[in-house]
Amino acid sequence: MSLPVLAHTADIRTITERVNVLIRDLNTGRADDLTQALADIAALQVDVAALQALHDDDATVFLTSNVAMNNTGNFFSGPNTGSIGAAGQKWLITATFTVRDTSGAAVFTVRIFDGASALTGTTIASTAVNQAVVATLCVVVDLSAATTFTAQAQDGSSTNGVILATGTGGAGGPTNKATSISAVRLA
Amino acid sequence: MIIVTDSDGLVLMWSERARPSAPSGGAVIELSAQLESEFRDLPVGAGVTFDGASFEVLPEPPLPAPDIASAGDFVRALYELGWLEDVEAAVAAENGLAEKLWNRAAIFERHHPMVAQIASAIGKTEDDLDTLFTLAGSYV
Questions:
Q1: Whole-model pTM?
Q2: Quick check: B44 and A62 CB within 8 A?
């Protein structure tokens, strides 16, 4: 009996069901070919190892110190992923920004930057002084080489913008988790 | 846990598993269990520094006074500070343009020359103006 190889994206339940089928076939004598069954199990082990490798590549990086945006013409860097991936890989990159302006209402531009260009971005606006606003971006990328992705923001309204490490207002937020970038390998 | 510092020891970012890139002169540091525990318990601040042995939380700087206030918030702040009557008298004593602007303005700018002129006329300082605009900006 030959079973198709599981996809790298197979979840734990799918893997468990596959193992159970193999065990049941062996126990009931329905396996046509014990050698083939063992080969299927070996292939399964390879897939599990690949899944584990994908899992180990998932990570989030959080901002720890506030970043002053003191030039309306510049983008300022928040957290980065470090150099990740390789040619032929597909990754999901997400970034969350918490920003505010301490002098008035402001318009901010946020983006995910790969060192050469913005992969995605948008503008968000605060309507009052010191009002923190939040944006989340996500993009799927096919890599041609190892790449460092950086969460960047710009305050186009004044030189008093801040990228916040911790949310403010109300009961506040978890310490040093207001601005982040995450990378998840898809394939 | 990994932290990334700049050349001055300012902790820029942290991650449980990733290895973010450090800027020129900075460092990527893997924390010991003890330091990781200390890092997780840090209070909120404007930032964190790390000298290789311990962390220091940077206090939040006082927020600068807003540059702008809506007319409603501006008048309310003047009233609460007890300056409203003096301002109205000073505006009335100025040329006609000041009074027209006072009556029609939707916003007041902290650094507008006419604001400085009226403030000076009623004996208020730059610090007083900061107090006024900070109070006006608090009405959110």
A1: 0.70
A2: no
**DSSP E strand stretches across chain A:** 59-63, 67-69, 76-84, 90-101, 106-113, 118-126, 133-142, 147-155, 161-163, 180-185
CB-CB neighbors (< 8 A) of A102 in chain B:
63-64, 66
Residues B63-98 pLDDT 10s: 778 888 999 999 999 999 999 999 999 999 987 888
Q: Which residues of A touch B44 (CB under 8 A)?
A: 166, 172, 175
Please state the rounded mean pLDDT for residues A80-95: 95
> How close, in Å, is residue B112 to chain A by CA atoms?
15
What are the distances in angstroms from CA A187 to CA A12, A54, A59, A82, B103?
17, 8, 15, 19, 64
Residue B22 pLDDT exceeds 80: yes
- Distance, in Å, from the CA atom of B85 to the CA atom of A68, rounded to the nearest integer, reads 39
| Pick from A60, A63, A129: CB nearest B18 | A60
